[in-house]
TrEMBL record:
<dbReference type="InterPro" id="IPR041715">
    <property type="entry name" value="HisRS-like_core"/>
</dbReference>
<dbReference type="InterPro" id="IPR045864">
    <property type="entry name" value="aa-tRNA-synth_II/BPL/LPL"/>
</dbReference>
<dbReference type="InterPro" id="IPR036621">
    <property type="entry name" value="Anticodon-bd_dom_sf"/>
</dbReference>
<keyword id="KW-0963">Cytoplasm</keyword>
<keyword id="KW-0547">Nucleotide-binding</keyword>
<dbReference type="InterPro" id="IPR004516">
    <property type="entry name" value="HisRS/HisZ"/>
</dbReference>
<dbReference type="Pfam" id="PF13393">
    <property type="entry name" value="tRNA-synt_His"/>
</dbReference>
<dbReference type="InterPro" id="IPR006195">
    <property type="entry name" value="aa-tRNA-synth_II"/>
</dbReference>
<protein>
    <recommendedName>
        <fullName>Histidine--tRNA ligase</fullName>
        <ecNumber>6.1.1.21</ecNumber>
    </recommendedName>
</protein>
<keyword id="KW-0648">Protein biosynthesis</keyword>
<dbReference type="InterPro" id="IPR004154">
    <property type="entry name" value="Anticodon-bd"/>
</dbReference>
<keyword id="KW-0436">Ligase</keyword>
<dbReference type="InterPro" id="IPR033656">
    <property type="entry name" value="HisRS_anticodon"/>
</dbReference>
<dbReference type="Pfam" id="PF03129">
    <property type="entry name" value="HGTP_anticodon"/>
</dbReference>
<feature type="domain" description="Aminoacyl-transfer RNA synthetases class-II family profile">
    <location>
        <begin position="1"/>
        <end position="332"/>
    </location>
</feature>
<comment type="subunit">
    <text>Homodimer.</text>
</comment>
<dbReference type="GO" id="GO:0004821">
    <property type="term" value="F:histidine-tRNA ligase activity"/>
</dbReference>
């Protein structure tokens, strides 16, 4: 019978890797707690319309990458490709906006996109994201970027830079759209099929194209920075000043637009020294009105956790999860000991110790070999003689020294 393998674009997290993931998620939650961010969990799938209206039907996500299916009732559902629209839906549906604003909400969740798998890019990937809802202040963007940099600092990443741009408001973009289309009028024929399609739906997305021919055609393109209205200019200057006040390295990139339609004003990416993006986000003041006819300004970001771990590996940082640790390895000898050690196991684990036991029953020599392989600190040998005396034979595996002691004496030794 043919073996069944995992689907393309997915990954198994094996125990050693899972320890790194657990630590990464722990750090993300700790950093969020310091910024007074509360966790939210949304369903893994949503009505497809949420992403058509929220993300934009002209985006690559909607046109090419969504996992969409009909349920048994004939309703169109989509596996979550990104986290912002589901959070917005949850805020509106549960009327969280009636609480004290701004809201700061975080999530750590799997996302699903049908795209070509690559290094750090999976069809099922995991994202840590934060959404701040209810503030128009440029300080909100500064808060989100500071949180990103605090997270990466906490996991040990180095040499990161923030790339910034403003895509303006609807008025700014309308003016820039005309200027960009005028520039592209005689150049589109030499550009890729996607860019020709984007020119009809959302010309700003052309700036995000990675095709070398398209990048060359854009070398003399007008800058959206020249089309910003006074209010958008003031807002963007406030973001830059806030980052400078925090000493966070940033650079203005007039080509930065991001690939989702809901962004307004500030967009940003956190880049490595090799120009790889390890976090991205921005402001989206129109999304809530689009989804629920309630105007709520918001700003947020997403971090791909696979990419975060890959960055640590590239920078030679130590593994986050550390080594597998066993404090005590308990070896029952004989049928009576098999039952007698069960309450002892329970008590040791309740004392906060990592305790493994021998299940093989192949004798003391074999059990001690396994205790060594597990790098246990102590082996606890419970035979008839020890149990009759209410004691255990405690062997320190690093030195080979051993002595009989009661449970109380053992705990005192370990804790002392």
């Amino acid at each position: 019978m043919e073996r069944i393998n995992r689907p393309r674009g997915t990954a198994d997290l094996l125990p050693r890797q899972a320890r790194d993931w657990q630590k990464l998620e722990q750090i993300a939650r700790e950093v969020c707690a310091h910024f007074h961010v509360q966790e939210i969990r949304t369903p893994m799938f949503e009505h497809t319309e949420l992403f058509l209206r929220g993300v934009g039907d002209g985006t690559d996500i909607v046109e090419k990458e969504m996992y969409t299916f009909l349920d048994k009732g004939g309703r169109s559902l989509t596996l979550r490709p990104e986290g912002t629209a589901p959070v917005a839906r949850a805020v509106l549906e549960n009327k969280l906006y009636a609480e004290m604003l701004p809201l700061k909400l975080s999530y750590i969740a799997p996302m699903f996109r049908y795209e070509r798998p690559g290094v750090g890019r999976l069809r099922q990937h995991h994202q840590f994201g934060v959404e701040m809802v209810g503030s128009l202040s440029p300080a909100a963007e500064v808060e989100m970027i500071a949180l990103i940099m605090s997270f990466y600092g906490a996991i040990g990443a180095k040499e990161l830079t923030v790339a910034l741009n403003s895509v303006g408001c609807a008025s700014c973009r309308s003016q820039y759209r005309e200027a960009l289309l005028d520039y592209l009028e005689l150049r589109l024929t030499g550009m890729c099929e996607d860019c020709n399609r984007r020119a009809k739906k959302n010309p700003l997305r052309i700036l995000d194209c990675k095709n070398s021919c398209c990048q060359a055609a854009l070398l003399g393109a007008p800058s959206i920075q020249d089309c910003l209205c006074e209010e958008c200019q003031t807002h963007f200057a406030g973001v830059v000043q806030g980052l400078e006040a925090l000493g966070l390295p940033c650079e203005i990139d007039a080509r930065l637009v991001r690939g989702i339609d809901y962004y307004t004003r500030t967009v940003f990416e956190v880049m490595t020294a090799s120009r790889s993006t390890v976090a991205a986000g921005g402001r989206y003041n129109s999304l809530y009105a689009e989804l629920g006819e309630i105007e709520l300004p918001a700003v947020g970001f997403g971090i791909g956790l696979e990419r975060a771990l890959l960055l640590l590996e590239e920078q030679g940082a130590p593994a986050l999860g550390g080594e597998d640790r066993v404090d005590l390895y308990l070896i029952p000898l004989g049928d009576r000991a098999e039952i007698a050690v069960l309450p002892l196991l329970q008590e040791l684990r309740q004392a906060g110790l990592v305790v493994e036991r021998d299940f093989a029953g192949k004798g003391l020599k074999s059990a001690l070999k396994r205790a060594d392989r597990l790098q246990a600190t102590y082996a606890l040998i419970a035979g008839d003689e020890e149990l009759a005396a209410g004691k255990l034979l405690v062997k320190e595996l690093a030195t080979g020294t051993q002595e009989r002691m009661t449970l109380e004496e053992l705990l005192y030794r370990i804790e002392g």
